[in-house]
C-alpha cells in the first residue's frame, strides 16, 4: 500500500474516530503525522513540524483570550439582555432580533460556539415562556451565530483566512463572510416559516410583551463599559486598520487584565484550548497529506463523481454530511479548503469557480451543526426548558441537522454556481 493511500486512510480514521469517541483528534493527528510521515514516508521531523499553523494558533489564542475576559466579567451577557429588552415585548420579532444579535456578536470575535453558550440559556427559556417553538428558536439563534462565524476576526474566519492565504488568495474573507450570512439567513427564513414564526404575528398577547419590556437589567459596571470599549477598539482596529487579530487580542486583553478589569485566571481557563489543539493538529496532518500526495488522491475520488457544474453540489453534500458528525472547524475547514484548487483542476473547472466552491464548503460545513450531535446543536438542546419535550426536540433537531446536508448543498449550488451570488 502506497504512502499517499495510507495518509488518506489516516484522515478517514481520524474523521471516524471524531464521530464515535470524545477524543481530541488534534492530538491524534499529530501522532499519526509522525507515524505516517516519518516512520512510513521517510519525511524529516523538521518538515512535518513546518506544517504546524503558527499563525492560526496565534490568531485563535489571541481572539479567544480577549473574549474570554469579556465573558467572565459579564459584558457579553449584559449586551444580550439589553437587546432582549429592546424588542419591547414583540414576540414575533424576537427570533429575528436574536438571529441578527447572534450574528453581530459572533462577528465581533467570539465565534459561534461562545455565542451559542451565551445566548442558548436565555433564548430557550424565553421560547418556552412566550410560546415560541424551542426548535425554531434553537435553529434561528444557532444559525445567527454561525452566520457570523466567517468574520475575519472570528475563529472560523481566522482559520479560513490562514488556509486561503497559503493558497495565494487574499481579500476573500469579506466575500466568504457575506456568503455565510446569505446561506444561514435563507435556511433561518425557511425555519421561521415552517415552525410557526408567521403564526406569532397573529397570536394574542397574554402578558409576554409586558414581561419582556419590563425586563430588569443591572446597568453596565465601570469594568464592563471599559471592556465594551476595548472590544470596539479591537473590532475597528482589525477591520479598518489591518491590526493583527491574534497579537491585537493579546495586547488589548493584557491591558484589561493588567488593570484588573476582568479575572485573567478564569478567562484563560475558559479559552477553548481543546479546539485550538484540534485545529492545529489536524492542519499538520493535512499539510503532510498535501506534501506526500494524499490530498491529491482524496480530490481525485470526489472529482470522479463530479462535473464542473455539479462540483459544488457534490462537495457541499460530502462536507455537510461529515460535519454532522465531526467538527466543522477542526475537520471540514482544514481538510476541504486546501483541497478546493485540486478539485477544480481535476474536473477541468476554471479558476473563477474557486470562490463558489470555497463558499459552498464553508456554508454546508456549518449548516448541519444544529444537529444535537454537533456542539452548537448540543448546547441549545441541553438548555431546553423543563416544559419542553426533550425527546421530540432531540429527534426534530437531528432530522433538521441531517436534512441540511441535502438542503445546504442544493442552496449553495443554486446560489453560488447557478445564480453566481453574491
Automatic annotation (TrEMBL):
Annotated TM spans: 7-40, 52-70, 91-109, 115-141, 175-195, 226-259, 271-289, 309-337, 397-416
Keywords: Membrane, Transmembrane, Transmembrane helix
Taxonomic lineage: Bacteria, Bacillati, Bacillota, Clostridia, Neomoorellales
Source species of the chain: Thermanaeromonas toyohensis ToBE
Entry keyword annotation includes S-adenosyl-L-methionine: no
Residue ranges of domain Dicarboxylate carrier MatC N-terminal in the record: 1-149
InterPro entries: MatC_N
Keyword Transcription on entry: no
Protein name: Na+/H+ antiporter NhaD
Amino acid at each position: 500500500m502506497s504512502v499517499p493511500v495510507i495518509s488518506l486512510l489516516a484522515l478517514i480514521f481520524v474523521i471516524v474516530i471524531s464521530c464515535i469517541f470524545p477524543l481530541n483528534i488534534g492530538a491524534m493527528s499529530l501522532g499519526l503525522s509522525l507515524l505516517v510521515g516519518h516512520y512510513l514516508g521517510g519525511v524529516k521531523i523538521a518538515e512535518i513540524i513546518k506544517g504546524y499553523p503558527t499563525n492560526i494558533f496565534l490568531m485563535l489564542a489571541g481572539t479567544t483570550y480577549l473574549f474570554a475576559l469579556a465573558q467572565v466579567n459579564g459584558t457579553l451577557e449584559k449586551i444580550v439582555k439589553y437587546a432582549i429588552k429592546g424588542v419591547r415585548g414583540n414576540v414575533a420579532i424576537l427570533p429575528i432580533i436574536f438571529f441578527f444579535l447572534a450574528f453581530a456578536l459572533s462577528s465581533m470575535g467570539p465565534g459561534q460556539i461562545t455565542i451559542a453558550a451565551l445566548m442558548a440559556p436565555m433564548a430557550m427559556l424565553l421560547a418556552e415562556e412566550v410560546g415560541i417553538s424551542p426548535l425554531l428558536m434553537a435553529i434561528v439563534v444557532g444559525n445567527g451565530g454561525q452566520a457570523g462565524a466567517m468574520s475575519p476576526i472570528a475563529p472560523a474566519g481566522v482559520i479560513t483566512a490562514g488556509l486561503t492565504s497559503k493558497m495565494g488568495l487574499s481579500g476573500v474573507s469579506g466575500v466568504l463572510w457575506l456568503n455565510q450570512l446569505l446561506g444561514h439567513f435563507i435556511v433561518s427564513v425557511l425555519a421561521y416559516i415552517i415552525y410557526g414564526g408567521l403564526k406569532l404575528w397573529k397570536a394574542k398577547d397574554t402578558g409576554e410583551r409586558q414581561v419582556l419590556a419590563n425586563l430588569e437589567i443591572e446597568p453596565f459596571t465601570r469594568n464592563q463599559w471599559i471592556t465594551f470599549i476595548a472590544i470596539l477598539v479591537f473590532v475597528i482596529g482589525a477591520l479598518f486598520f489591518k491590526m493583527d487579530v491574534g497579537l491585537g487580542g493579546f495586547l488589548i486583553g493584557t491591558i484589561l487584565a493588567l488593570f484588573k478589569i476582568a479575572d485573567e485566571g478564569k478567562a484563560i481557563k475558559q479559552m477553548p484550548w481543546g479546539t485550538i489543539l484540534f485545529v492545529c493538529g489536524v492542519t499538520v496532518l493535512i499539510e503532510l497529506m498535501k506534501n506526500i500526495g494524499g490530498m491529491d488522491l482524496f480530490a481525485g475520488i470526489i472529482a470522479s463523481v463530479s462535473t464542473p457544474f455539479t462540483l459544488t453540489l457534490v462537495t457541499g453534500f460530502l462536507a455537510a454530511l461529515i460535519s454532522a458528525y465531526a467538527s466543522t472547524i477542526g475537520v471540514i475547514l482544514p481538510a476541504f479548503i486546501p483541497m478546493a484548487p485540486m478539485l477544480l483542476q481535476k474536473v477541468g473547472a476554471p479558476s473563477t469557480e474557486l470562490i463558489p466552491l470555497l463558499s459552498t464548503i464553508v456554508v454546508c460545513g456549518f449548516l448541519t451543526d444544529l444537529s444535537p450531535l454537533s456542539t452548537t446543536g448540543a448546547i441549545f438542546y441541553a438548555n431546553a426548558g423543563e416544559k419542553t419535550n426533550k425527546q421530540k426536540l432531540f429527534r426534530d433537531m437531528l432530522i433538521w441537522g441531517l436534512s441540511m446536508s441535502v438542503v445546504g448543498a442544493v442552496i449553495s449550488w443554486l446560489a453560488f454556481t447557478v445564480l453566481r451570488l453574491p
